# Entry
Amino acid sequence: MRLWLPFCATLLIFLSLPGKCLAVNVSEYPALQTFVQMMANKHGMSETELYGWFAQAAIRDDILAAIRAPKEALPWYRYRKLFVTKQSAARGQRFWRANANTLLRAKLEYGVDPATIVAILGIETQYGRNLGRHRVLDALTTLMLEYPRRSAFFERELEEYLLLTRELGVDPLMLRGSYAGAIGVPQFIPSSHRRYAVDFDGDKHIDIVDSAADAIGSVANYFKQHGWQRDAPIIADIKLDGEFADWIQQIDHQPITPLKYLITYGILPMEYNNIDQTAALIRLDEEAGPVYHVGYNNFYVITRYNRSRNYAMAVYELSQWIRRLYDQKE
# Structure
């Protein structure tokens, strides 16, 4: 549903309602005035046009509520149930079959496993079924002005968004996405769109909203640019000496420790080929208690897409489920 200003104005009466929106009064936000001047001076954008867009933007309480309670904060066993589902795996298998040639081309060009790309698109938007309901300008403006903890980040993304819409020749008030301002089937934030989105269908136009090929190629390019290793492992189960559990919990998920050192501490991957390969210890919370895995470079690359370990594990598990279904149909 479009949130036109008269609708927002009506909601001002009902301040107790969730999801209310407040029209932006630019004069009340010195930071926004400074931002407008920066965009004009740095990028040659019209102050009049910028003020006109922001006057039609809205500060949304539902966006603030969503970012303060991200699903990634759930324990793994609850998070998994949201994204690693029979329906998502079945849809992923169908998406893979419908786009098999494009996914194969992405693997050949970028080295990224098709199942991983498909799983990403499934978790992000259910293969394009849920692209997000928030106007991107509302989301980024709200978070820049009313979410101090990450205001600098969202200010940069707002800058990137306005540059992106200028490059694409679209009205900044028209694009919709997630509560964090992510766009399209792969849910790229504006800076990622500008850096990593590609024209993979060859029509000389990047479109990650309506082109499955561009969405596939863009995810593959993102992974390659962040260090994805072709045909390399992602994660492995381990045998663990319990006395090191407290120590393990303090280790970051960046793979910097060679397996041969982890093995000396009683941490033994169930499968491995190279003891000099670097890895990290990954803790996930099951209902019965914590479980541990060894995460390799490609697991870390998935966390560059979304920094949550839960997210990366969901991508891995869903990809394996999709691969099994796809192989059964071949």
Remarks:
- Residues 1-18 have pLDDT under 50 and may be disordered.
